[in-house]
């Protein structure tokens, strides 16, 4: 998942129109007691509104990477790292400086990805407050790839579920981080490597062709990793060991969907500039949290009409199915 997907991706489904048409706008906000998240919020995390852009996109990213158990999983809350203490500010500045340095070294691309880190909520709070430490990877199982901080690729959140201990409220937690990968090298399972094999490499992966794990060495764990979001969830434990890539990729969306920018691009071929200007304005209002998502969808429905909207979404879904086949 690229950063732009987190900041701009709005997913619209046919179910949205069916639900709004029946009068069920889903405006109710989860009013769980703040005590359930006092540790996270005490660490400088701020809970995101469920109908907001960031919450929706991060939650979808997490659930889509759970494979078959995603059908029975629930994202209870998403928190964003808003801490402004001096330590966090310093780590953010280090991340920016190293991003620029690695980009210069690698021909302009620092190869920044998102990665999941599963841990007990106490550990996650310590990481958000103080950064990673060697104690965050003291488990030396034979299937680990080198000695460092191991994160799961954004598409494989399922790999962090087993290390996300259930807290006293029955919730598990996963930390979503931005990771500077730079130039990667393959690290075999069981390797005791704890630094790059040469100055040409920055980080490690379990596979060069289809990486599920990112390995950030100790020397870079607080300059190359930026904790950004925490997803609090309920999910069944995966059966056996890791699911293979095919099983995760075979989880189909429950209904046809299309990103909102793609929807607007397609609608511009059918609607006049005045109508598109209105849709763009409402989209901007939604991004700035001036209007809720159901209101945005209702306004777009009023301008474009359900027949055109559903046809566009179904066409996009057929295109994606053909690309996967």
Write the layout of secondary structure elements.
Layout: H1 3-8, E1 11-13, H2 14-21, H3 38-42, E2 45-47, H4 53-64, E3 74-81, H5 86-105, E4 112-118, H6 121-130, E5 148-153, E6 172-180, E7 184-186, E8 203-205, E9 213-217, E10 225-234, H7 245-249, E11 257-259, H8 260-267, H9 273-287, H10 293-304, H11 306-324
Parallel strand pairs: 7-8
Antiparallel strand pairs: 1-11, 2-3, 3-10, 4-5, 4-6, 5-9, 6-10, 8-9
Helix pairs in contact: 9-10
List keywords for this structure.
325 residues; alpha+beta; Phosphoenolpyruvate Carboxykinase, domain 3; 9-stranded mixed beta sheet; two-stranded antiparallel sheet; 11 strands; 37% helix; 18% strand; globular; RST
Describe the structure.
The protein has 325 residues and is α+β, with helices and mostly antiparallel strands. It has 2 domains: 218 residues, Phosphoenolpyruvate Carboxykinase, domain 3 (Alpha-Beta Complex), CATH 3.90.228.10; 68 residues. It is built from 11 helices and 11 strands. The strands form 2 sheets. A 9-stranded mixed beta sheet has the order 2-3-10-6-4-5-9-8-7, sandwiched between helices. β8 and β9 form a beta hairpin. It starts with a helix and ends with a helix. 34% of the residues are buried. It holds the Pfam family RST. One of its GO terms (cellular component) is nucleus.
């Amino acid at each position: 998942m690229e950063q732009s997907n987190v900041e701009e991706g709005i997913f619209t489904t046919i179910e949205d129109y069916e639900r709004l048409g029946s009068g069920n706008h889903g405006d109710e906000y989860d009013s769980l007691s703040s005590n359930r998240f006092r540790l996270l919020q005490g660490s400088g995390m701020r809970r995101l509104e469920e109908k907001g852009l960031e919450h929706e996109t991060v939650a979808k990213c997490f659930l889509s990477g759970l494979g078959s158990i995603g059908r029975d999983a629930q994202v209870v809350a998403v928190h964003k790292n808003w801490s402004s203490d001096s330590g966090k500010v310093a780590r953010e500045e280090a991340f920016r400086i190293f991003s620029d340095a690695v980009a210069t070294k690698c021909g302009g691309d620092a190869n920044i990805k998102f990665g999941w880190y599963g841990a007990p909520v106490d550990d996650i709070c310590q990481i958000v407050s103080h950064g990673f430490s060697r104690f965050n990877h003291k488990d030396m199982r034979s299937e680990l790839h080198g000695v460092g901080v191991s994160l799961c690729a954004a598409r494989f959140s399922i790999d962090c579920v087993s290390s996300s201990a259930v807290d006293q409220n029955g919730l598990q937690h996963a930390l979503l981080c931005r990771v500077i990968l730079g130039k990667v090298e393959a690290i075999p399972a069981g390797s005791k490597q704890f630094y790059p094999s040469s100055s040409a490499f920055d980080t490690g992966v379990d596979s060069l062709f289809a990486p599920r794990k990112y390995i950030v060495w100790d020397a870079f764990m607080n300059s190359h990793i930026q904790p950004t979001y925490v997803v609090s969830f309920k999910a069944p434990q995966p059966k056996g060991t890791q699911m293979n890539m095919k099983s995760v990729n075979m989880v189909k969306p429950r209904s046809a969907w299309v990103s909102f920018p793609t929807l607007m691009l397609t609608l511009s071929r059918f609607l006049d500039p005045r109508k598109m200007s209105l849709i763009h304005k409402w989209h901007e209002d939604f991004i700035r949290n001036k209007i809720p998502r159901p209101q945005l969808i209702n306004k777009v429905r009023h301008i474009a009409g359900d027949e055109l909207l559903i046809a566009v979404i179904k066409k996009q879904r057929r295109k994606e199915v053909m690309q996967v086949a």
